[in-house]
Write the structure tokens for this entry.
Amino acid sequence: MAAKKTSAEMQTINPSSGSTILPEGYKPSKDEEFMNPFQLEYFRQKLLDWRSELLNEANQTLENLSTESLHKPDQMDRAQIESSAALDLRTRDRERKLIQKIESALRRIEDGSYGYCEDTDEPISLERLEARPIASMTLAAQEMHEKMERVHRDD
């Protein structure tokens, strides 16, 4: 019977870039070493894909805004266009802030701190990272942080 291979033994390195190549269909598992090269590459790819998607949407919005004509004779048409443009710009501003958080997560992958809580240094659960790859705190630390924000905001 063959022994189960560790993630380090299964790891594939791309010779041209030196980066880890994920096996097809790879998903992080609790059965492997936390934040091993596969998990780091999995989350790096997830973050890069998310950032690319957001940037494409932002470019599409800019393209749409530059081609929209505000010289409509009907005031209702013009008001609708302006309202829609304002909503698009607010959405893109939120996404701009999200891109900054994605960039921060990518930097944490590079410096080796990704996956660990910035307050407690405890591992962030894989489930939390899967749902929110930009998470920088464990769920308990995040809840405490938000509770403290509410307390200080009420002062």
